[in-house]
Amino acid sequence: MSVLDNFESWKDFLGDRLHQAESQGMNQQAITELAYEIGGYLSNQVDAKNDQEAVLREMWNAANKEEQHAIANIMVKLVQSEGTGR
């Protein structure tokens, strides 16, 4: 099963990656910019595997660049307390 198949697994995966990046000294601005780039990639290249991902994709595609940055920032905040190590 892929982490994309289940939204909770996806949030845990993102949370783990976020905590790993923070522990390696990546600052919040760099993390948010990376989240923006990943959001764009997922929107354009990866099929939604569940309802939550489908909604995020629709929101991403309807948003302008500034709004997409806001979505990416919100996703980072959403997964800050997630992850298998928490």
UniProtKB/TrEMBL annotation:
A UniProt-annotated Pfam family: DUF3243
InterPro entries cross-referenced by the UniProt entry: DUF3243, Uncharacterised_YmfJ, YmfJ/YflH_sf
Domain of life: Bacteria
Protein name per Swiss-Prot or TrEMBL: DUF3243 domain-containing protein
Species name: Aquibacillus salsiterrae
